[in-house]
Amino acid sequence: MINLILCGGSGTRLWPISRSLMPKQFARLFDGASLFQRTVKTNSRICSAQYIVSNAEQYFLAKDQLEEVGANDVRFLLEPVGRNTAPAIALACLGLDPEDIVLVSPSDHVIRKAEAYEECLRKAEEFAKKGFMVTFGITPTGPETGYGYIEANGEDVKRFVEKPDLETAKKYVASGRFFWNSGIFCFKAATFLDELSTYSPDILTAAKIAFANAKKENKDALVRVDHEDMMNIPSNSIDYAVMEKSAKVKVVPSDIGWSDLGAFDSLYGEFDHDENGNNINAKHLGIGSKNSLVLGGQRQICTIDLDNMLIVDTPDALLVAPLASSQKVKKVVDELKARGSDLPKVPQTVNRPWGTYSVLESSDRYKMKRIVVRPGERLSLQKHLHRSEHWVVVSGTATVTVGDKVFYVRPNESTYIPSGTIHRLQNEGKLPLVIVEVQVGEYTGEDDIIRVQDDYKRS
Amino acid sequence: MINLILCGGSGTRLWPISRSLMPKQFARLFDGASLFQRTVKTNSRICSAQYIVSNAEQYFLAKDQLEEVGANDVRFLLEPVGRNTAPAIALACLGLDPEDIVLVSPSDHVIRKAEAYEECLRKAEEFAKKGFMVTFGITPTGPETGYGYIEANGEDVKRFVEKPDLETAKKYVASGRFFWNSGIFCFKAATFLDELSTYSPDILTAAKIAFANAKKENKDALVRVDHEDMMNIPSNSIDYAVMEKSAKVKVVPSDIGWSDLGAFDSLYGEFDHDENGNNINAKHLGIGSKNSLVLGGQRQICTIDLDNMLIVDTPDALLVAPLASSQKVKKVVDELKARGSDLPKVPQTVNRPWGTYSVLESSDRYKMKRIVVRPGERLSLQKHLHRSEHWVVVSGTATVTVGDKVFYVRPNESTYIPSGTIHRLQNEGKLPLVIVEVQVGEYTGEDDIIRVQDDYKRS
């Protein structure tokens, strides 16, 4: 079985932990592990390989996180822009053997009962082999109004229904016939493409063109779809495009401890709690505080007499709200966007193909960054017109190019890059290279960069 | 009239804005102005000169803030350790002309009605000239249990009473004869010393010895009391030591819009509020939040559905609590102290005689600081054994000594100080010198410093 992992996400619902350049599946929520990594691990009990569909911007982020968890046989399909799930799955299936069994899974859900889940996967695989389209129906734990429901008749689907109101949801749950639509699916690649050609042929036609035109690298293990081709595929969900119309759908009732972590209140339950019901966080000192979710790891956080509150502390943004108001985080993000803020988009630590950088202070005439370059990687050969840069190596050894000179800069040594001078930072060593960069100039924006050569094809 | 300003304070009640090295009177709470500066300004309508009693550690902080508000004729008495108000006032009065009229005022109170206050001061001055000890009795605005009360009979004091319980406080307020004890006093220096010799002669005797031994500089405008001498003075408040015993006390009823800002809830009222009752703060985005006090200026703060909440955001510590729990901030500070944290003591921006420094990031092998040196000032001639330093000048021009060389470092230039090397940073210019310092070494603690020469006598 091949695990097709969908890595979309706008990064709004868990803001400021998630940002549009750091959707929640990649945020390291649990002891340094991300939901994406957890998904890969959980599914690799059954799936022999991963096929990642993600935004092109998140390719290196996903690749790094996969390497960390030891996932090796991984293929990527990079979308320049998201067009919902049906086009994403179609493009991926076009790159697979028609007989491959595909497990489509979102990358940002939690599944707590691994063994029950494994059993469900086995059942689904059997159905898929027989040419069915399998959807996983989550046994409801309450009358949730935030999910679509599936009405089942045994293993057959009677109908899909939209998000209900509370009264309807209560009836659904009481009936015992209704399940939450989880967004997890299983089928043969050929079955999906056949059904798509029947019920949404326009998507399939456009997807075939896009796939044919896509740039393929690493023996087809990296597929980059063209922007215009992608925009030509009608945007639609797999539910609307196929599942709700197909006669070949089976449902596997799944009591698997599932959550889509759609808001901070559902995240609360994923942590261990102290005797007061607060999530365990060494940086939180609570006096009389209880039942609260306090996220943040750098500064000291002190609270008094909080109950059912949410605090999300990040280096550049702070969120405080009653846990019960978690659903309104989107409003905050919308308002920030309306004000032209970068905070909905850019996380404080920004991933780059070669490593990461974090802005430590940004002021009128200067900016300070901590830069980490992974072993064997190098930044582009570049120059800036409005800023000079001072680099102090903190650990590792830097191979530095300035103009036509190449030299090493060792820990506790520094070098200077005048504005307008071609330069490059490289880590030829075996350990991460950490440098502190002080930029000085009249303008220190990220877009003041002219790339002359780039290993990652950004020039 | 001479304004004797008492600058004690433990920095706990408005933590994390206040710290023990940054008591609340020096924190820039209001558009960059501190309570200390406000006190000086308010009283200088009447008082021709200031006499500051402060902890020796806060001398340069107080001096800077006085210069900012243009206070010129200022004397200082520096205590190595606080022994409560009676010894502080005694030491100050010993340095004054016996006929001087002294207005004793705390440095961290708010007085909103400047004209009513001025009128009260005129009355007090008259009494003081006639040899009375004047206390200002604040017209109570409610049955506060946090203050001592004064029972008056016209202009005479009937008795001082301790903090009452709520029932008693209600009776006091209803009677119309009771006033809050404000800690503001007015008398001739000679009157105070006479009454002290009558009612607490041990304090006066020890204070005389301490004053005689004290180091006097700048034509007695700067008096530094010796630590042992100070410890020999019995610790007591002016209320206990003199006011409650003297037969020469008069009370001036004062309806002057007074607050001691004893906790964040009383600070709430000092700010302008938006239509939702939140203090105006450009860094706060509230969705449905109301009646809340949100303090902080560097990061974006977003809140949802808060009511009557307190958020205090500083670069190294965050406090969140219901405003009604403001009195419990002390518990937070006590717990942090018990855990060995530096946060109750050290503010993120630390004042030094020559300027300020802020730690921007502190990590295992390095520390980054922003350093601001005031025009005409210089750091000590010093060396470090465990760290090297990289200095990048951002604005201003640095005069740098490294070993036996002295040279200029201009904006966008840098220099390097190897560990063990004697060095000095100086600002000979007319504008502030701003540098970014990257320290690299196995240990970057503040105590790794050997001072060879210091303008501020710290070597």
Automatic annotation (TrEMBL), chains A, B:
Keywords: GTP-binding, Isomerase, Nucleotide-binding, Nucleotidyltransferase, Transferase. Pfam families: ManC_GMP_beta-helix, MannoseP_isomer, NTP_transferase. It comes from the Bacteria. GO terms for molecular function: GTP binding; isomerase activity; mannose-1-phosphate guanylyltransferase (GTP) activity. One of its GO terms (biological process) is polysaccharide biosynthetic process. Residues 345-454 form the Mannose-6-phosphate isomerase type II C-terminal domain. Its EC number is 2.7.7.13. SUPFAM superfamilies: Nucleotide-diphospho-sugar transferases, RmlC-like cupins. Belongs to the mannose-6-phosphate isomerase type 2 family. This is mannose-1-phosphate guanylyltransferase. The lineage of its organism: Bacteria, Pseudomonadati, Fibrobacterota, Fibrobacteria, Fibrobacterales.
